[in-house]
Task: inverse folding
């Protein structure tokens, strides 16, 4: 049962007679643990100050403070509250004294002369228990620190990805603007930029603004400001924002709403942003035109909002990681739109799912608790 010194458990032997200590050591040596001796209650208490012990063998009749009092003092210390104590006595102990001793933390009584095999096996049980719990403690600490390390690495990875992605996204529009401005500066007479060039620049600046906003929303989600409203209006506002883009691309927008208001307690700005992203994704998936439907359904428990398009459908490799940050198939996309949308929907207690339609195109569905429920 030899163990290396690191995993050796401390066993405290308390007896005022050196010969008894020698005898105890003789019996317990073969356990291969670290046997610590004390010849008085005071010394025992001192030994217990800084080290943890698997078990204490405590002689009852000590000079000065007796064994029972020592046990009481040991139990009073936080560090030793659970340390098992085996009392060693020379005489049969009266039962009321034993009961008192148990209440002070004794786990066992042994009467001299000690039977070596019995003592050894009792001590070895406590040593094993101690070592198991120490091992468990170490494993727990290891697990915790691994978890912390993983979280730190995860955060760093996301931060790195974020920085790389921002740099990549911002570089293209900046390059376009730079070329145009440098071209204008190169001509001797301060030639103003043409209307067409200014329009391109304006488009690139708008794109930059959107990229910056997306990253901000991703890195620092704004607080929710929920108020009860008719969801049909929020959808209408988002659709109105994209009407021109849709028309330009030959995409027809169709809305299918109930005739009654669809009450929901949502953050209108954030929800509009979700819808704009879903509608824009759908429009971008229909470069040669198509039909974009927004269907609102309300039951007393749930509101379901579905965006259906007749576009290319979601590429299979993208579909698997659709709501993961930076997943995009677009040269100018940040791949944050759906990830931010999911966070917003979930912060409203809802769910967002997406699938491809058998007849072509994709469907994205948002399910929200109804306005009445959301108020609870
Ligand atoms: N309706 C859709 N049809 C086909 N593919 C889609 C649809 N919606 C999303 N996708 C795919 O999912 C990807 C991720 O969409 P997401 O909105 O998260 O980012 P993005 O549109 O690429 O960039 P942005 O951050 O500018 O929104 C898209 O690049 C596209 O490949
Ligand atoms: Mg998008």
Result:
């Amino acid at each position: 049962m030899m163990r290396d010194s690191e995993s050796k458990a401390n066993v405290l032997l308390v007896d005022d007679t050196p010969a008894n200590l020698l005898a105890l050591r003789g019996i317990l040596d073969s356990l291969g643990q670290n046997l610590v001796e004390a010849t008085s209650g005071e010394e025992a208490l001192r030994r217990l100050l800084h080290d943890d012990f698997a078990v204490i063998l405590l002689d009852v009749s000590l000079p000065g403070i007796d064994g029972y009092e020592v046990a009481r003092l040991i139990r009073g210390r936080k560090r030793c509250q659970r340390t098992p104590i085996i009392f060693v006595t020379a005489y049969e102990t009266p039962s009321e004294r034993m009961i008192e001793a148990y209440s002070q933390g004794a786990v066992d009584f042994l009467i001299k002369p000690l039977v070596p095999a019995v003592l050894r096996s009792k001590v070895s049980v406590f040593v094993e228990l101690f070592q198991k719990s120490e091992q468990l403690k170490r494993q727990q600490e290891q697990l915790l620190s691994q978890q912390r390390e993983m979280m730190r690495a995860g955060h760093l990875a996301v931060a790195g990805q974020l920085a790389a992605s921002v740099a990549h996204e911002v570089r293209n529009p900046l390059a376009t603007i730079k070329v145009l401005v440098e071209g204008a500066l190169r001509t001797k007479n301060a030639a103003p930029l043409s209307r067409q060039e200014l329009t391109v620049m304006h488009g690139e600046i708008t794109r930059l603004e959107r990229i910056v906003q997306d990253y901000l929303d991703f890195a620092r989600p704004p607080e929710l400001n929920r108020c009860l409203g008719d969801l049909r209006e929020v959808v209408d506002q988002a659709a109105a924002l994209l009407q021109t883009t849709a028309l330009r691309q030959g995409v027809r927008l169709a809305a299918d709403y109930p005739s009654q208001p669809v009450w929901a307690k949502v953050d209108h700005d954030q929800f509009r942003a979700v819808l704009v992203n879903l509608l824009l994704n759908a429009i971008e998936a229909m470069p040669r035109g198509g039909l974009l439907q927004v269907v609102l359904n309300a039951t007393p428990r749930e509101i379901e909002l579905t965006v259906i398009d007749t576009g290319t459908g979601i590429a299979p490799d993208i579909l698997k990681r659709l709501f993961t940050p930076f997943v995009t198939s677009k040269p100018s996309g940040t791949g944050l739109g759906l990830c931010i949308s999911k966070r917003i929907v979930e912060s409203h207690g809802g769910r967002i799912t997406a699938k491809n339609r058998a007849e072509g195109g994709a469907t994205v569905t948002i399910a929200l608790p109804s306005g009445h429920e959301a108020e609870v």
In short: The first strand starts at residue 10 and ends at 14. The chain has eleven helices and twelve strands. Residues 214, 277, 281-282, 285, 309, 311-315, 318, 322, 327-330, 333-339, 362 surround adenosine-5'-triphosphate (ligand 1) (CB under 6 Å).
